Amino acid sequence: MEEQVEVVSKAFVEHYYSLFDNDRSSLSSLYHPTSMLTFEGQKIVGVDEISAKLRDLPFDKCQHHISTVDSQPSSSAGIVVFVSGSLQLPEEEHHLRFSQMFHLVPSPAGSFFVQNDIFRLNYG
Amino acid sequence: MEEQVEVVSKAFVEHYYSLFDNDRSSLSSLYHPTSMLTFEGQKIVGVDEISAKLRDLPFDKCQHHISTVDSQPSSSAGIVVFVSGSLQLPEEEHHLRFSQMFHLVPSPAGSFFVQNDIFRLNYG
Fold it and tell me: Which Pfam families does this chain map to (chains A, B) (predicted)?
């Protein structure tokens, strides 16, 4: 169980940030109608609204560098994932440090979707 | 519901860090035998082991300053809470920035306990 949690969360993190950096509109496949995103304090509910928020971020390309991935099994067969890393935006010299947590929940199809997503930039 | 989640998570955060800073041994009241803590990558399971870890941290007094608290209802009537802030240790000039997430789960007694807890210092 413990090992499966690690494997799923690492694969999820790799997939999520790869889509974010290379094919952001495909992130919608990871959310459901009940999903929630809190982005720098702004609350957004539902796959459509979350997809619109991510699509309309004020930059086209970015690159995430992952520093740490921690995960635990949650109740109800889910997984909580905590990520820290940095975000490189085009034409910005400095990386922005961020932390993000996900609560992954099993979907009827046998995979996982993002039920909870909270993102914060870390100000130094 | 949304409002209750905010109220519970803010009260929890205030209570948790107040105990941490003033009466650290009482933090054990917030964990159960199934609780999990990942502290700077180290995995600890169960209220006894978590209490021992927190008790044996290499400083007696500290002070947390909270910058942001984000919360969402999770599946199964729980609450996910994401905290950012800084930690002042005795005889340290600088604050240490940290991020921490909690998954609070309803207890049979009608309150909440910490099922998942992940803590990371933010390195700049």
Answer: NTF2
